Amino acid sequence: MDRIIGIGEYTITEDINTVVKTYALSSCVALTAYDSFRKVLGMVHIALPSADIVQNRAIANPAYYADTAVPMLINKIRLRYGCGIKELELGLFGGAQSIRKDDVFHIGVRNVEMVEAALKQMNLKVCHYDIGGTSSRSVAVEVATGKVKVICQPLFI
To answer: What is the distance between the alpha carbons of residues 140 and 111, in angstroms, rounded to a whole number?
Structure first.
């Protein structure tokens, strides 16, 4: 069974018959956390680097912002499923650069930097990367095996 997560959404599951998917990661990033012993997978689709200017939105939807999504996902997977922090295999996907020359915000790069900074604060490191460049990515992860499939498409905007 496929479980699809959209922008600003997350899921955590131990259903080994599930494949968790997210689509069209351009400047957005997906962070995955997988415990191979417990067969537990978490994924979050992050849109923006920081909730600093819109704190009330981060409270309502912490998965939307990297600075709130990372600790939320890691803490929930640890507390709900008993996953040890050092047992988690982390993946980071997306964070593409816009092909527009007038892209002054560099959201993709900033999303990746913010996720990495949040993980560093928790003494965690990513082991599976597919980030940057100018491709949009779709990601699928099998809960039973932790196998990751990334499909890249060129950006046209």
So the answer is: 20
